[in-house]
Amino acid sequence: MRRFAIFGLLVGAGLALTGGWAHQARGAQNVTILNVSYDPTRELYAAINDLFVDSYKTKTGTTILVEQSHGGSGRQALSVVNGLQADVVTLGLGWDVTAIEHANLIKPGWQDKFPYNSAPYTSTVAFLVRKGNPKHVHDWQDLLRPGVQVIVANPKTSGVARWSFLGLWGAAAGAKTYDLSTEEGLEASIADGKGAKSFPIYDNAAALAAVTNLYKHVPVLDTGGRGATVTFAQKGIGDVLVNWENELYLAQDEFGKDKFDIVYPSVSILAEPPVAVVDSVVDKKGTRAVAEAYLSFLYTKEAQDVIAQWHYRPRDVAILKKYAASFPALKLFTVDQAFGGWAKAQKAFFADGGIFDQIYKPTN
């Protein structure tokens, strides 16, 4: 059975604890930690876990078992809040970690614990279309044309679905973009995000009309990004998939480049999936040292190279340059610069009674 067929069953069942993907080093098991992550990172962390377990065994003599749990990022965060004993979380967006912090399970200041606001890699949102692009989808506005069916996950449960929603909103509202592959562009976006006093992008009529129209084109809302990929690539539903950049490449690798094309919109959003230690769990289990070492390992050149191989954009500049051909230069905007940060964006768009709830009318 192919990997995506298996994943389809796991996604359909909701939360999936994928012990089969975990790696146990040879010898006695001494310490077990659980990484609760978002949908498309199964393969990434399966590869990284192998490297980390071997590295940690060599350095300390301790044998580690890293277990993995995957699902929609918002749903995963809720599972941790409701008692899933995660030692670390590696989720799809900062707000989901903040939700765990608000439950007093993660200490404030978690974004300062690891480099780059505790985001060891970046990504963005792009499109996957049927081979030859028969519906001529080239940019965000093409998703709204009559006769185009769009597959995207549910922003109430999925991190990439929230990135996708904000990607369309920002594009339609004319959000200022930056070349974030350069130090100058990154610094300018950060300065603009910190210096802005108001965010009229929230009140943009064109953006509201665009997102309202989008969900009329969506036949089914999966709970996470991997479920959306299964719906599009395996079940054959829809004309275009809106998803993580890495997930689109994985679909091509799995099903064949002769079946799908990847399309990058003219502008998109910079996604920074964060990581954090779940303080309440590691202090109770005595696994803090291992958990912190695990997340620190994500920033090593060895792990950054694996990150690039799985089509996530590494933070290490030298490794990013090594794989430059795999990562097209893009015009991007950030959540901080365009929306004032995740707290404001979550409240305005995705909280109960927010803009998504107001515009989405499921069809049965």
How much β-strand is present in the residues? 15-25%
> What is the 3D shape?
globular
Q: Which CATH architecture of the largest domain would you pick?
A: 3-Layer(aba) Sandwich
- CATH class designation of the largest domain: Alpha Beta
Count of structural domains = 2
What would your notes on this structure say?
The protein has 364 residues and is of the alpha/beta class. The chain folds into two domains: 3-122 and 272-326, 3-Layer(aba) Sandwich (D-Maltodextrin-Binding Protein, domain 2); 125-270 and 327-359, Periplasmic binding protein-like II (D-Maltodextrin-Binding Protein, domain 2), CATH 3.40.190. It is built from 17 helices and 15 strands. The chain has helices at residues 3-12, 42-60, 73-81, 94-102, 115-118, 159-173, 183-195, 205-214, 225-234, 245-255, 279-285, 288-297, 301-309, 317-322, 335-339, 342-350, 355-359; strands at 16-17, 23-24, 31-38, 64-71, 88-90, 121-122, 125-130, 150-153, 221-222, 240-244, 260-263, 268-269, 275-277, 313-314, 332-333. The strands form four sheets. Strands 1, 2, 3, 4, 5 and 13 form a six-stranded mixed beta sheet that branches. Strands 9-8-10-7-11 form a five-stranded mixed beta sheet. Helix 2 links the parallel strand 3 and strand 4. Helix 1 (3-12) packs across helix 9 (225-234) and helix 3 (73-81) packs parallel to helix 4. The protein is globular and about 60 Å long. Residues 1-16 and 18-28 have low confidence and may be disordered.
